[in-house]
Amino acid sequence: MEEKSKNPEGEKGSENNALEFSNRLDLSSLREAVAQIKAELGKVIIGQEDMIELLIISILADGHSLIEGVPGVAKTVTAKLLAKTLNVDFSRIQFTPDLMPSDILGTSVFNVKTSEFEFKKGPLFSNIILIDEINRAPAKTQAALFEAMAERQITMDGVEYEMKPPFLVFATQNPIEQEGTYRLPEAQLDRFLFKISVKYPSLEQEVRILESKHSQKTREVASLITTVLSAPQIAAYQSTIREIIIENNLLRYIASIVDNTRSNANLYLGASPRASIAIMDASKALAAIRGRDFITPDDIKKVAEPVLGHRILLTPEREMEGLTAEKIVQQIVDSIEVPR
C-alpha cells in the first residue's frame, strides 16, 4: 500500500481528484456567457470594465444597482446595451420631479363592457428596468418604487401584483447636479446591491472612443448587439451562484468588515446585516465569473466598496476633511486580518 501511494500514477490520481473537487460546479457555460456579454458590449463601449463586470455580477446575484457618474460617461447606454444582451423584457423610465406613482406602476381603468375596473400595468412591470436620474422623482414615487425593489411586488387597490423574475433595477444618478433632485432615503439605498461609481475614461480610452465613433456606420448602436442569455438561463445561473462554497472563516471575515463600520469613529451610520449578505452574494458571483466554485478573500475585498459605499454615512467632521466613503471602506478592509 505504501509503494502504491508513492506511485506517480497515484499522485496523478490525487491531482485529478483535487481538480474534480475544484470543479464541483460546472461553471464553463456561465463563464462563456459572461465573456460573450462582455464581447457584445465591447463592440460599442470602450473601457468601463469595472462597471460592466459589477452590473453582470448584480444580475447573477439577483440584485439592483445604482450607477453614479457625471453626464457622458456611458452610464445609460451601458445599462441599455447590457439589457439588450438578455432575451427579457426591458423598460426605460425617465424620472422627473412631476412623475407620479401611477406613471410607473399603472392605473385602474373602468371597462364599460364589464362594468369593472381593470388594472393597466405600467412600465415598472418588466424584467430589466433602467431608471434615468432616479433622484429626480418625489417621495411618493420613490415609495412606490421602493416596494417593488424590496418585495418584488406592488400593491394597488389592495391587490398584490408580483414581478416576474428576473426583476432588476438599474438606476442612474448625477452626483454633481443638485437642483431639482431629492436625496434617496437610506432604506431605499440599502436595497441596491451595488453603488457603482463611474469615472472618466483615460486619455488612451478617449482616443479609442473617438476612433470608434468616427468609424461607426450606424446611429443605432443597439442593432450591433446580439442576445446572449434567456430568462431561464439567468435563473439557472442565479441558482448555480447560490451553490458557491464559502468557508466559515470567510463568513466571519465579512461580518468583521461590516461590524467595523458600526463602531468606526469616522462614521455616523454603519452598515446593516443586509450589507453582509450582499457582500457574500456578490463574492459568490465574482468567484463564479473567475471560474471558481469557492470564495477567496480577494473576492470579498473586490466587492466590499461598491456594496458598502452607499450604506454608510461619514461624520460631518470627516466629510469636511475631504474623506470619502471609498477611502473609509478601504481603511476598514485593510485593518481586518485576512483569514488564512
Largest sheet: 5 strands, parallel
Number of helices: 15
Fraction in beta strands: 15-25%
Q: Which range best describes the helical content: under 10%, 10-25%, 25-40%, 40-55%, 55-70% or over 70%?
A: 40-55%
* Helix-strand category: alpha/beta
The largest beta-sheet arranges its strands as: 3-6-9-1-10
- Give the overall form: globular
Mean pLDDT: 89
User: What is the chain-wise order of helices and strands?
Assistant: HHHHEHEEHEEEHEEEHEHEHHEHHEHH
The stretches of 5 or more residues where confidence is low (pLDDT under 50) are 1-21
Q: First CA to last CA: what distance?
A: 33 Å
Oligomer: single chain
For the secondary structure, the number of strands is 13
* Rg calculated over all Cα atoms: 23 Å
What does this structure look like?
This protein has 340 residues and is an alpha/beta fold. The protein is built from 15 helices and 13 strands. The chain has helices at residues 2-6, 8-22, 28-42, 49-60, 75-84, 101-105, 139-151, 186-189, 203-215, 231-241, 248-263, 273-289, 297-308, 316-320, 325-335, and strands spanning 64-68, 86-87, 90-94, 106-111, 116-121, 128-132, 153-156, 159-162, 168-173, 192-197, 229-230, 267-269, 313-314. A five-stranded parallel β-sheet has the order 3-6-9-1-10. Strands 2-11 form a two-stranded parallel sheet. The chain has a two-stranded antiparallel ribbon with strand order 4-5. Helix 11 (248-263) packs across helix 12 (273-289), helix 12 (273-289) packs across helix 13 (297-308) and helix 13 packs antiparallel against helix 15 (325-335). It starts with a helix and ends in a 5-residue tail after the last helix. Mean pLDDT is 89; it is low at 1-21.
